[in-house]
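User: Please run a holo structure prediction.
Assistant: Happy to. Please share the sequence and the ligand.
User: Here you go; the ligand is zinc ion.
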Amino acid sequence: MSFVITTPLYYVNDKPHLGSVYTTIICDSIARYKRLVGEDVIFITGVDEHGLKIQRTAKEKGIEPRTHCDEISEIFNINWKKWDISFDRFIRTSSKNHELVVNEFYERVKASDDIYMGVQKGWYCVGCEEFKDNPENSSTYKCPIHQKNLEWKNEENLFFRLSKYQDQIDNIISDPSFIEPIERRNEIVNFVSKGLKDFSISRTNVSWGIPVPKHENHTFYVWFDALLGYVSALNTNTAIQSLEKSINDGWPADLHLIGKDILRFHAVYWPAMLISAGMKVPKKVFGHGFLTREGQKMGKSLGNVLDPNLLLSKYGNDPVRWYLIKDITLGNDGDFQDKRFVDIINNDLANTIGNLLNRTSSMSRKWFDNKVPNNNEITSENKLEYLAKRSVENYINNFNIYKLDQAANEVLSLAINTNLYLNDNQPWLLIKENDKLPVVKEIIYNVLESTRIIGLLLLPLLPELSSKINVQLGSTYQEDIPWEQQLKWGLLISNSPLPKPSPIINKLEYE
Ligand SMILES: [Zn+2]
C-alpha cells in the first residue's frame, strides 16, 4: 500500500508565489516524514495548464498556449528542485497520457448516465475558472479573490449530474476525517446542505483544452480535466497508459493538501465525479489558509508581493521552511513578517539549537580528546533521557495528525530543555574538581545524545540543518535502519571522534 500525497496542480498563469511554496513545503515535509516511518510514498505535484485564462495569457504574450505552458511548467519544475522538494511525480495536464486518462474517465461517467447537454448561463470569473452563485449587482461585482469583473456566459455545455450524488456527498463529508480543519468542513457542510446543482464540464469558446470526444468545438472544463491529473500522475508506465493502471498504481490519494479557496472542487465535485466513474474517493482533503504579509493581503496592485525565491537566495531553504512550518498552524491563515522571521530564526535555530550543539561539542573535544565521552558507566535513566523520550512521542503523535507546528515546537522544546539541563549542571565548573570527571562525562554525553535526537527529528522538517547536525556529531542517519529505531536514547557511540565545530546556521540581520 502506498501513501499518495498531492499538492494542488498549480495553474501556469504565473511563476510560483509564496502560497504555492508554502503548500509544497508542507507536503514535502509530510512526504519525508511518511517515508521515514516506512510508508511507500508517492508525492505528486504538477501543473494545471488548460483553460481560458491560460489561452488569454498566452495571447497577450503573443505566443502559443503550449509554448507558454512549456515555459512556466519548466519554471515550476526547476523551482521545486531549488527548494529541495522531494516530489516523485510531476504531472502536466497538457500531456498526451493525461488526455487518455481524461477520455477514459469521461466514458465511464457517460456510461453512468451522468452527462447531458444543457445551457449554461451565469457570471464567470476567468481567474477562478468558476461560475459564482448569483452575486448581487453582477455586472459590477468583482471576484473577491481576483478583484476583476465577472463575465456573463450563455452557452451550450455538457453537464455533470452532481445533484444525483447529494446523499453520497452528504455521507462522505459527515465523516469528520474527510475534510480538515473543522472550519473548512463546516463551510462545505453548509454549502452541500443548500442542495447540489449539476455543473458544466465542457466549454465551447475555449480552444486550449482537451477536446470532448464526439462534440465538435467542445473542450473539457479545466477543472474536470485538472483534477484527473492526480490520477494520471500515478501511472509511470506510459506505454500502457490507462485509467485502470493508474488506479492499480496507488489510487485513491491519501491526502490532497490544497488552499482553502479550491475546497469545493476537491471535497464536493471531485468525490462525486469519482463515484460516477466507479472509483474510490480520496481519504482526506486538507484546506490550508492564506498568507498575508505584515498583516496585509499580498497583491500586485499593492506592490507588496513577496517573491519566495528572493527569500530563498537571501536566507536559504531551512529558515523559510522553519518559519512556514512552525509559525503557522496548518489550516489557519498565516502572516509573514520580516522582523518576526529574523527573530524566530535567530532564536530557535541559531541560538537554541545551533549554540547548544556548538558549545557542547567544543567542551567535549577539549576535555575528552576530540571525542564523545564514554558513557559506559551510566546506568540510571536521567532527566534528559526522560524528556527526550517524551518529546519523540509527542512529535510523532502530532505529525501523524498533521500538526506540523506542534511537532516543530516539540523539537524546539527538547532543545530548550537540553540547554536548561546543561546550565543547571554546569559541567564547566565540575570539570575543575578532580573527582567529578565521571559526572561531567555523563552530562556531556547526555547533551550530545539529546542533540543527536534533535537532529533526527528535524530530518523531515529541515533536511539540510538535520544533516549538518549529524555531521557535526560525527554521526549519520542510516537509511537501512528504521528512523524510529534510531530515535532511541543512547545510540551515540562512546569515544567516537567529534569533528571541529562550525556554526550550523548563520544569524540573520534585520534590515
Ligand atoms: Zn476569481
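The mean pLDDT is 94.
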